[in-house]
Write a structure and sequence with these properties.
299 residues, Methyltransferase, Methionine Synthase (B12-binding Domains), Chain A, domain 1, 8 strands, MerR family transcriptional regulator
Length: 299
């Protein structure tokens, strides 16, 4: 069974390219850039080749090329020109487009080629911040608008996770150099979104800290055992969907009871669910961070 998405609505094209549907229709009618098919109810649909062409046209357009000139190039010359003008400025856009296509086609080979090309000139930290984070931010919108399915999101997220695992493992062969604190990374119960936490684990290892990665859906009670082995723990957690905003205050109260058993230990929290909490509301042993870079920069 072929699960590759091969038919796209004009709204899908808009969501994936960032070009308004109205503009796409103008380009289509005035310059014959695309040849959509029609459903039985006369609704435009576009194939994968049209999407790829639109992404290339968008990159050229955003680099100062007039649409009239692009239209005269023809289907074969457009990708050639794209490759010629790819620079540091446009590399990010080109990489994002390639990663979107790899996701839509479930094409692991394209993902790996794109990633390896990026690695030739960037560090993993740069790739994550400049390419993966913008891509992941876009995935939320694409999923909400039904442009992609959860299968697409899981596919690309797991490929990114694989890269985090590989780079983290390379660092873990070396003994920690910052031994004053131990970082214990976990997700609360019913929380499974761990990509951000995995990346934090990588950054902590990169800075020479000892980390203990516990992963998904950890009960608070299970974390108490760590206090028997280490006296200066920095617990790090990421609240994406759980606990809910109504449950957070109670969760923090329960965690404070755990932290009372170790005067030097603290809880650091990030994620969507804590964005509305002000730092002044959490004094003492619990500290919130608005994003990953804020946490990393504070170390």
């Amino acid at each position: 069974m072929n699960n590759v998405k091969t038919s796209f609505s004009i709204r899908d094209m808009e969501n994936l390219s960032g070009i308004k549907a109205h503009t796409i229709r103008i380009w289509e009618k005035r310059y014959n850039l695309f040849s959509p098919e029609r459903t039985d109810t006369n609704i435009r649909t576009y194939n994968l080749e049209s999407l790829q062409k639109l992404l290339n046209v968008t990159l050229l357009y955003n680099n100062g090329y007039k649409i009239s000139k692009i239209a005269k190039l023809g289907n074969e010359k457009i990708p050639v020109l794209v490759n010629e003008i790819i620079s540091e400025k446009s590399e990010k856009s080109h990489a994002l487009n390639s990663l979107k296509l790899s996701m839509l086609n479930f094409d692991q080979a394209l993902f790996l080629r794109t990633y390896n090309e990026l690695m030739e000139g960037k560090s993993f930290t740069q790739i994550f911040n400049e390419v993966f984070i913008p891509l992941l931010n876009e995935l939320g919108l694409l999923w909400q608008t039904n442009t992609i399915s959860p299968a697409h999101e899981h596919f690309i997220s797991n490929l990114i996770k694989q890269k985090i695992y590989i780079h983290t493992e390379q660092l873990q062969f070396e003994a920690p150099t910052n031994k004053d604190e131990v970082y214990v990374l976990f997700l609360p119960e019913n929380e499974i979104h761990e990509l951000g936490l995995l990346y934090i684990n990588y950054q902590l290892a990169l800075k020479g800290y000892k980390t203990i990665y516990l992963g998904q859906t950890m009960p608070i009670e299970s974390l108490e055992d760590l206090l028997k082995y280490y006296s200066n723990i920095r617990f790090v957690s990421y609240f994406t969907v759980s606990p809910t905003k109504d449950e957070i205050e109670n969760y923090f109260e329960r965690f404070r009871e755990v932290l009372k058993k170790s005067a030097g230990s603290k809880l650091y929290v990030l994620g969507h669910q804590i964005q509305e909490i002000g730092e002044e509301q959490l004094l003492g042993s619990i500290k919130i961070f608005k994003n990953i870079n804020q946490l990393i920069d504070s170390l």
